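Subject: Protein record for review, amino acid sequence with backbone structure tokens
Why sent: The fold of this protein is of interest and is recorded here as tokens.
Enclosed: The protein record, placed directly beneath this head.
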Amino acid sequence: MRQSAPETLPARLYSDTATYQTERREIFGRTWQLLAHESQLPRPGDYLATHFAGYPIVAVRGEDGTVRAFHNVCRHRAGPLVEDGTGHCAGALVCRYHAWKYALDGRLASARD
């Protein structure tokens, strides 16, 4: 008995903007995604910032040792909290524009006008 080849997706779907936006919303926005291995953030305050599926993301190890990920955006004026890449922050993520400070667990710790 001869088996038929599996059906594949039409080639246009691999570069179609509408398909990407649907996948971004329905898949990447609703499920867990691997951003980094926890060994890349060994100490409290270590962070890794990147873009994933068009979203700016920062993963940071908290004072309690837990790795958390957040949108890398200050809620005041939507500026980035840190530049893409890796680094270390001493106890808080601080927006460079107006110095809003976020604790490593994501809480807004202080906000200046």
Summary: The mean pLDDT is 92. The first strand starts at residue 46 and ends at 52. The first helix runs from residue 17 to 28.
